[in-house]
Amino acid sequence: MTTAATATLVPPGDDASANVQLKYRSQAVAKPYFIAAIGLFVGQIIFGLVMGLQYVIGDFLFPEIPFNVARMVHTNLLIVWLLFGFMGAGYYLIPEEAERELHSPKLALVAFWVFLIAGALTIVGYLAVPYATLARLTGNDILPTMGREFLEQPTITKVGIVVVALTFLYNLSLTVLKGRKTTISLVMMLGLWGLAIFFLFSFYNPTNLVLDKYYWWWVVHLWVEGVWELIMGAMLAFVLVKVTGVDREVIEKWLYLIIAMTLITGIIGTGHHYFWIGTPAYWQVWGSVFSALEPVPFFMMTMFAFNMVNRRRRDHPNKAAVLWALGTGVMAFLGAGVWGFLHTLAPVNYLTHGTQITASHGHMAFYGAYAMVVITMISYAMPLLRGREANGNRAQVVEMWSFWLMTVSMVFITLFLTAAGILQVWMQRMGDSPLPFMVAQEKIAFFYWLREAAGVVFFIGLVLYIVSFFVTGKSRAPR
Amino acid sequence: MASPVEEKRVPGDLAMWCFILAELAVFGVFFLAYGVARRQAPALFAAGQARLHLAPALFNTLLLIAGSATAAAAVRAFSANRQRAGRWLLAATLGSGCVFVVVKLGEFAERLKAGITLSTDTFWMFYLSLTFFHFLHVLLGMVILAAVWWMAGDGRYRPGSLDGVETAAAYWHMVDLVWVVLFALVYVAR
Amino acid sequence: MSASFTKSTARNIFYGGAVFFFLLFLALTFDTTQALPKRDNRANLTEQVARGKNIWETRNCIGCHTLLGEGAYFAPELGNVYQRRGPEFIKAWIKGQPTGAPGRRQMPQFHLNDGELEDLVAFLKYASEIDTNHWPPNIEG
């Protein structure tokens, strides 16, 4: 059954407690990245809870933390912790794929501290001073890039992100160039380079609002529905190769096919953002046609994950990582695929654009695709980084509980926001006497309360997730 | 074009068939949108269609069908190990594609001169979108055919190892199929 | 039924497809760029509008409101607020914040002077005259 090719991939580990060494010592630089990612994730959720409460108790924490500040912190922390996760994943998987040590572990650690401190300073800046003051202090007038959704970072922070990304890419690219070139590492690098290149459009901020918005999507859409999916696919494929022992050749050809479908549908799919922002009407057709097919690659990814696990040639002791990998497949399809499709056709989007429907899709898609794939990677790599193939049974049980708590509560957050969104559309956008925005908001407050409750459960799940890192006990894998 | 080597075998590469399916889905949804838009503005579409030239479009249809036939013949030739014939037949398909492109470019040039763009009206938006999108597929198909023609030079396509040439032919048939539907829907159905 | 499925074909489809559709995207972007002058109200892009956009950005308005449907969903759409409320109401509203009504959503006080308020209103007026294909569906945004 086990061929010579796969035998090299499969550590002999029957006993998960055995002291496992990293294949390459420099992979250890991934550890601080993963820890920072989880820490920032906690911050993101805390601010999410604050905002959720502000939705129903409007003056909660006002004027100390106005909603716009809380939202900026919430979304920016999300982006930054995912970037930390991607970088950690890159530093972990590229040496293993390239079969050589990282070009410069020292540079990776320096970049880590630069990124963490710059990120922390930016968040402190958001919270400590009014945004206009932050803009003045950071010289926004020299090159105004601030104040656009998700790109609120001071220009200097954006420059810092580019610098950190370049050192990261330099480090990894040299490692790959000097080592073995696999499909997984190639796709990962393509995704990461794409991430850096498309981020450059965040520096383009014309006065013309339509052009501003047009190219703003080149960052936002071409990230999350383009190059990030390459990163996600590569990370998922890497973990699946490791935990299933399925022949790399099989996993890699499916990876190519899935990301081919991603770009075939996703690039022109950008058009679903060009319906109502001043761009020509034909985008309604082009955007609808292509984005209608955007669920396809996500569905393929789900099938892919389940197929590979079913065809596994070994039972990896890290059951939690397998659960996260399968969960990513399902939730990415639901959140990005199904919930995206719900409002992507132009006639539907005409009514739902800029409502809670968008928010519901955003929550499940980001959690299902990107938060979960990073956690999958952390779940697989972190035990190895801590010197064991898998965590003990009790730790894994706690981690699986956190999986279900977070995932199920996210489903409910999405459902409640969807309900709120449908009612909002009905009251505010349809009928002969549409209600004003705030009147409609008050009528759907019930669903915001439910969303906040689900958010609390999510937070409990997250706490449990962190607890799982500190659970000790019998190091036997769950059977 | 069932291969004599095995029974019940999908010709060409499965990855290509996934791609073909995705392409057909895109065109399918596009045609559906065309149908819906046409029902909403029948007069506008009738007026636009009246300005289309049937003869060159019909000529192009026949060209693509002929190209499909030579592509299929090329696969048969290679499966009989008739290398020279196979390559000439591939070249013939490529030639039909070239003529198609020239005729189509003439049509685009005429529209461009008349000041018609994607933003002129719904009919011309669909007309330009569909024909241009298909046009790009013809170009892509020609690139694939040219690559296969080039690689056939070393005699790699023999009975039993026809994947490359079958894959290219399958793609070309898709391009042909889409055009036939497009021709019927946009040029003929009034 | 059997079929071959090779990594090299899958790879070629990935690279070919990515390049093909990115070029198509660039072509559509080119056409959009050509078509925009008729739609994006650039004739009214004055210095004042530019200053207004800067105020819009540096006060992070997008953190609560939507503009042409994009932004946060916490506060009303402002792409058509110029038509919905008119310039005088907008200025008075911004000056009067926060309302301090208990339990109500609050908008910060931004301490804008009269000139800055005019700039912001000019920006909102410009934004409201962009051709958005008749979005939003009604005046409530």
UniProtKB/TrEMBL annotation, chain A:
Chief location category: membrane
Catalytic activity from the UniProt record: nitrous oxide + 2 Fe(III)-[cytochrome c] + H2O = 2 nitric oxide + 2 Fe(II)-[cytochrome c] + 2 H(+)
This protein's pathway: Nitrogen metabolism; nitrate reduction (denitrification); dinitrogen from nitrate: step 3/4
Biological processes, Gene Ontology terms: aerobic respiration; electron transport coupled proton transport; respiratory electron transport chain
Gene Ontology cellular component annotations, sorted alphabetically: plasma membrane
Molecular function via GO: cytochrome-c oxidase activity; heme binding; metal ion binding; nitric oxide reductase activity
Keywords, in A-Z order: Cell membrane, Electron transport, Heme, Iron, Membrane, Metal-binding, Oxidoreductase, Respiratory chain, Transmembrane, Transmembrane helix, Transport
Keyword Cell membrane: yes
Residue spans crossing the bilayer: 33-57, 77-95, 107-129, 156-177, 184-204, 216-241, 253-277, 283-309, 321-342, 362-382, 403-426, 446-471
Record keyword Transmembrane helix present: yes
Biological role stated in the UniProt entry: Component of the anaerobic respiratory chain that transforms nitrate to dinitrogen (denitrification). NorB is the catalytic subunit of the enzyme complex. Shows proton pump activity across the membrane in denitrifying bacterial cells. The mononitrogen reduction is probably coupled to electron transport phosphorylation.
Subunit (UniProt): Heterodimer of cytochromes b (large subunit) and c (small subunit).
Family: Belongs to the heme-copper respiratory oxidase family.
Protein's name according to its UniProt entry: Nitric oxide reductase subunit B
UniProtKB/TrEMBL annotation, chain B:
Alphabetic keyword roster: Membrane, Transmembrane, Transmembrane helix
Keyword Transmembrane helix: yes
Source taxon at top rank: Bacteria
Subcellular location: Cell membrane; Membrane
Chief place where the protein resides: membrane
SUPFAM superfamilies assigned: Cytochrome c oxidase subunit III-like
Chain ranges of the Heme-copper oxidase subunit III family profile domain: 14-190
Transmembrane feature ranges: 14-36, 57-79, 85-103, 124-150, 170-189
InterPro entries: Cyt_c/ubiquinol_Oxase_su3, Cyt_c_oxidase-like_su3, Cyt_c_oxidase_su3-like_sf, Cyt_c_oxidase_su3_a-hlx
Keyword Transmembrane tagged: yes
Family that this chain belongs to: Belongs to the cytochrome c oxidase subunit 3 family.
Name the record gives this protein: Nitric oxide reductase NorE protein
Organism the protein comes from: Gulbenkiania mobilis
UniProtKB/TrEMBL annotation, chain C:
Record-annotated Cytochrome c domain positions: 47-128
Keywords associated with the record: Electron transport, Heme, Iron, Metal-binding, Transport
Signal peptide coordinates: none
MF annotations from Gene Ontology: electron transfer activity; heme binding; metal ion binding
Origin superkingdom: Bacteria
The protein, known as: Nitric oxide reductase, NorC subunit apoprotein
Native source organism of the sequence: Gulbenkiania indica
Lineage per the UniProt record: Bacteria, Pseudomonadati, Pseudomonadota, Betaproteobacteria, Neisseriales
